[in-house]
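Input record (one chain):
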Amino acid sequence: MTPKFYDVTLRDGNHALRHSLNPKFVTNYCKKANLTDCYAVEVGHGNGLGASSFLVGKSGFTDEILLTAAREALSKPKLAVHSIPGFSTIKDNLKPAISIGVDLFRVATHVSEASLANKHIDFLLNAGVEVQGVLMMSHMIDTNGLIDQIKILAKFGTKTVILMDSAGYFFPSEVESKIKAIKNELDIEIGFHAHNNLGVAVTNAMAAYASGASIIDGAAMGLGAGAGNAQLENIVTNFLKIHSSTEYVQKYLDLSDLVSEEYPDKLPLSKSSSVQSALSGVFSGYSPLVQEVSESTGVSKTQIWTELGKRKIVAGQESMIMEIAQDLMNL
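The corresponding structure, as predicted from the sequence alone:
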């Protein structure tokens, strides 16, 4: 049995595009996604619903415009969104997304802060839509702590929890041990979201599935924050080879071609900054900002990444990068 393939190209990929994703491309992509066996297509700002701001990046188009374009074009996979309480609110973001016709909501928190998802999960479950809990930066807590946070999400009513390796930090053996421990302890569906900072995103995705994860995230051409996500077409091809079926491979390759033709200069690369991000355990999407701050202040990228890691900076704390660089300059 193959996993549920969850496509994050039109959301996590928006990080790589500096949040400039446009509705025409969303429409074209969704029409091609209809021809695959993809479980869901996630759409929106890189940081999810309501996140467009000068702090984390202004979107070229509103959530409503992008989601409406996706809803009109998407007929087979579920239309999904990423929602971080704080960026997203029930009144301003969740209710409009439900009205547009979003099928699946991922409510995401930092890995140690699952309790912050309670109100949003409760509202969405009562609204009758599918809800998944997401634990971002999942390397920043030990396995027992991870299990405790998943228990909190399960108590809120979620039957599915996604582990995000937001910094591309894990090795396959770490993925395997954590997911096996979770599955041994809890009767809950697990998904895994890999980043490619250390070049093992696809291998990590395979290890996650082999260890009991049933939902695997990926992006066409790996389009995503930092060194990118696990490459969707590679994941699919590997799984289908195992099961001696290549029925949908070409359809996923068509998605890959669409991305590479439209955004040839935005495709992710595993640069030194990406590796430093992983080694420091810092959010992959900070790479462009670290580069900019390093150039403007003269503080080396290595120093900035190292200090970000020491201070355990997480997504949404972009303003701290310049502050940290200035502190290093003063030292």
